[in-house]
Amino acid sequence: xxxxxxxxxxxxxxxxxxxxxxxxxxxxxxxxxxxxxxxxxxxxxxxxxxxxxxxxxxxxxxxxxxxxxxxxxxxxxxxxxxxxxxxxxxxxxxxxxxxxxxxxxxxxxxxxxxxxxxxxxxxxxxxxxxxxxxxxxxxxxxxxxxxxxxxxxxxxxxxxxxxxxxxxxxxxxxxxxxxxxxxxxxxxxxxxxxxxxxxxxxxxxxxxxxxxxxxxxxxxxxxxxxxxxxxxxxxxxxxxxxxxxxxxxxxxxxxxxxxxxxxxxxxxxxxxxxxxxxxxxxxxxxxxxxxxxxxxxxxxxxxxxxxxxxxxxxxxxxxxx
Length: 321
Ligand code: ZN
Fold this sequence. Notes:
The strands form two sheets. An eight-stranded mixed β-sheet has the order 2-3-4-1-13-16-15-14. It has a single domain, classed as 2,3-Dihydroxybiphenyl 1,2-Dioxygenase, domain 1 (Roll), CATH 3.10.180. 16% of the residues lie in helices and 32% in strands. Strand 7 (121-125) and strand 8 form a beta hairpin. The chain starts with 12 loop residues before the first strand and ends in an 11-residue tail after the last helix. It is of the alpha+beta class. It has helices at residues 23-33, 96-105, 170-179, 233-245, 304-310; strands at 13-20, 37-44, 47-56, 65-70, 83-91, 111-112, 121-125, 131-136, 158-166, 182-188, 191-196, 204-209, 223-230, 254-255, 260-265, 271-276. The site of zinc ion has 5 residues, from strand 1 and strand 13.
């Protein structure tokens, strides 16, 4: 990068969006088993017959929001290159024994992580096979969302980062370091670690090189896209200019109600988004009742009666059924 390149205003993850096959099963796992707060019940703005479900900590703050498009009965995706191999969450030091027991008790798969770069981690999956890594992180000061079963001393703090599986990663590295504010922090075997220079707790991206592996195929349990965070619209404009300047096609600014978005496919094949931290999930319902009502953007409000009659009802937050 030369001295005249603008510094990226991006700092770590904003949200991660994956594909599910059953909204109620997805809801139960992410609220009850992982102990996340359900912070928004809305629809896919580009396909309003489909839910868009958001989970996170108290406010679903940027860097904590895991979201799903549930397509009823959609077949499972195929693991491979050009996709997010794992979504990584930060948990407190010495909490993995609790998590192993709790996940087993709930019938979730549990295995020890590869523990690259000295990480202590545990790998599990949701009912669709979405790969989840719980990574012990000392000093993550983000306020967790605690439940009756998962107390604050064990609870998820938010994302730690993502692991991408790629053919070689060379051009993805350029996107990370030039457009998204990451720096290389080390390599181990086939993995290279990048860390956000902005200091985000959700600031790790690991690239795993698997040349020769088959390409991934999207479906249930696949991450649809990874969204990175910028503080505001002004920073968004700068981030878009940097991406355009790299010769990468990028969408116009799109209003997602809770944030503003741009999308581009990074050269390794993973769909990236950059989203603004504002206005956030309290823009159309108060903090106390986040997630309780079906929230629709103005352009889809006329569909409300139809959607309330056809979208599968979800259990109540905190119920075990
Ligand atoms: Zn998104």
